[in-house]
């Protein structure tokens, strides 16, 4: 047998999520099936046909579990029941079954760092210092002068500690005071989350997106964070301290390894997608040795990078270089916290938005689209009186919060946007969306939606695009070009002016200017300003 070639039977097929396109659904804003102004699980079921048509392989639903909604589902009061205004467990089971029929897997969001203050665990824990669940949360005595136990600040601003007058101790919350942090040093907490993971995995859930999975374990000694220095990143400077002891502790990796073992014990193995809002060199650590921690980790430096060739390329190259062997990147441009890429990267310029979409779908890794990305939806304008996000309410007008990227999905150009009934007030306003709606774009061969669908279909047909290696190509200033495997070239002209890329011959498969699909090029590939193509090379 030729060296290095394995007999067919011994080759392992790559897991499904490596060649998949994932799609994030923010259920409250996706589709409202019962005209109460709030999107729901039946609304997702009703649009599975669309998602299958688009070609996505898996959907990740932002939290659907019971919550008083201090942070819109990210404050969980029951991890194993469905939030009533989103549906019932039966609706959820129908969703998993109906999605399965369309070959779409369902991932859920899990929030292990904190619960709602209304979770029965916290109600019990806060009832007395001797309660059996006291140690399930992070409680500490005040300093002798009565102030908080240490200097930690919440990532939502303000102190990370709130005094509980009843028991005289402070509890920790890395987010809102309504979101007390669990104590991941406690074995009971760990065992309970194993049960919760199994609960959903046993119901056919294909995996979890794990909320702020990097911060769940805190320094056991609750040491003060060091002050920020001039060299620190923007976030540290904003908060005046480096987040050293209230997150990214070495012990968190034991927890993630345990979850990975649990996920792998299923047939088909469940997938763990971590929210890791950290620099690339820290993010890659959450992949462990490449096979024993997260399957996918969100790359925040990529999301927040300026949409320019040098900066995007550097982050992708760094990620490729630093990932442990076997680890697989995830690429995303938008989510319910970080604004929409059609605004952040493209500033409403459709040429840039189309190039960004092509980039996301042609890098080596799993693309995760956020609902609306595929139609080039921009952030909406949400007036003060319509704000729902507690951060917008708290910090307006300095910071308007995250509602602008959470507004309902525009399905049709009618009152209510096809999201809800024309006479119903949606939970967040739709904002003017005009032609940026699914119906208008679905039948338009030139639309962003058609581009998204065609690129996704192309990935299916091209093993090189699915799993081929990434290699940067030499390119003129402001152009980012790379090879996938040996036979595919992707080029983005991130200049306003035209350029020519030399030294490659081939055939344009899909271009952001659809008139160029099918065009051959021989040694000279010309691209207009903000034009991008994916091509087969000859
Ligand atoms: C990250 C979630 O994406 C965000 O929406 C939430 O507010 C925080 N984690 C706290 O759970």
Q: How can the largest sheet be summarized?
A: 8 strands, parallel
**Low-pLDDT sequence parts:** 1-10
- Termini separation comes to 29 Å
Total helices: the number is 16
Share of helix among residues? Answer: 25-40%
* Distinct small-molecule ligands in the complex: 1-deoxynojirimycin
Mean pLDDT: 96
How would you describe the overall organization of this protein?
The protein has 538 residues and is of the alpha/beta class. The chain has an 8-stranded parallel β-sheet, covered by helices on one side. The chain has a 6-stranded antiparallel β-sheet with strand order 14-15-16-19-17-18. Strands 6-8-7 form a 3-stranded antiparallel β-sheet, with no helix packed on it. Helix 5 runs parallel beside helix 7 and helix 12 runs parallel beside helix 15. The N terminus is likely disordered.
């Amino acid at each position: 047998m030729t060296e290095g070639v394995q007999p067919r039977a011994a080759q392992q097929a790559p897991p499904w999520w490596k060649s998949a396109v994932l799609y994030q659904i923010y259920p409250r804003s996706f589709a409202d099936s019962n005209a109460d102004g709030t999107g729901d699980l039946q609304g997702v079921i009703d649009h599975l046909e669309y998602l299958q048509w688009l070609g996505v392989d898996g959907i990740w639903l932002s939290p659907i579990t019971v919550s008083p909604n201090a942070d819109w589902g990210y404050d969980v009061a029951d991890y194993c029941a469905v939030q009533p205004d989103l549906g019932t467990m039966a609706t959820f089971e129908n969703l998993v079954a109906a999605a399965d029929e369309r070959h779409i897997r369902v991932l859920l969001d899990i929030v292990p760092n904190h619960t709602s203050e209304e979770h029965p665990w916290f109600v019990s824990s806060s009832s007395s210092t001797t309660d059996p669940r006291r140690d399930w949360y992070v409680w500490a005595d005040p300093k002798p002068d009565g102030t908080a136990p240490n200097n930690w600040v919440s990532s939502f601003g303000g102190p990370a500690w709130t005094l509980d007058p009843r028991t005289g101790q402070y509890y920790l919350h890395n987010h809102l005071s309504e979101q007390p942090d669990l104590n991941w040093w406690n074995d009971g907490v760990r065992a309970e989350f194993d049960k919760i993971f199994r609960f959903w995995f046993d119901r056919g859930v294909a995996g979890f997106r794990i909320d702020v999975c990097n911060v769940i374990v805190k320094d056991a000694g609750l040491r003060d964070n060091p002050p920020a220095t001039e060299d620190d990143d923007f976030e540290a400077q904003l908060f005046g301290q480096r987040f050293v002891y209230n997150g990214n502790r070495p012990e968190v990796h034991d927890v993630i390894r345990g979850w990975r073992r649990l996920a792998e014990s299923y047939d088909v193995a469940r997938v763990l997608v971590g929210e890791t809002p950290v620099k690339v060199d820290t993010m890659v650590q959450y992949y462990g040795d490449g096979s024993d921690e997260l399957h996918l980790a969100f790359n925040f430096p990529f999301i927040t990078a300026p949409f320019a060739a040098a900066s995007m390329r550097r982050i992708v190259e760094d990620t490729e270089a630093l990932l442990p062997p076997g680890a697989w990147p995830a690429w995303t441009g938008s989510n319910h916290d970080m604004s929409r890429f059609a605004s952040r990267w493209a500033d409403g310029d459709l040429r840039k938005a189309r190039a960004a979409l092509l980039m996301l779908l042609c890098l080596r890794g799993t693309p995760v689209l956020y609902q609306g990305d595929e139609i080039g939806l921009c952030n909406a304008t949400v007036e003060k009186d319509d704000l729902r996000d507690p951060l917008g309410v708290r910090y307006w007008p300095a910071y308007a919060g995250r509602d602008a990227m959470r507004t309902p999905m525009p399905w049709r150009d009618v009152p209510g946007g096809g999201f809800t009934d024309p006479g119903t007030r949606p939970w967040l306003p739709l904002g003017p969306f005009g032609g940026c709606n699914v119906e208008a774009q679905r039948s338009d061969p030139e639309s962003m939606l058609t581009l998204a669908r065609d690129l996704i279909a192309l990935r299916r047909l091209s093993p090189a695009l699915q799993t081929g290696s990434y290699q940067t190509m030499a390119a003129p200033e402001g152009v980012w070009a790379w090879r996938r495997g040996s036979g595919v070239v992707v080029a983005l002209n991130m200049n306003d002016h035209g350029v020519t890329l030399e030294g490659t011959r081939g055939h344009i498969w899909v271009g952001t200017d659809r008139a160029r699909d099918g065009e051959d090029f021989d040694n000279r590939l010309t691209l207009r300003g903000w034009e991008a193509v994916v091509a087969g090379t000859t």
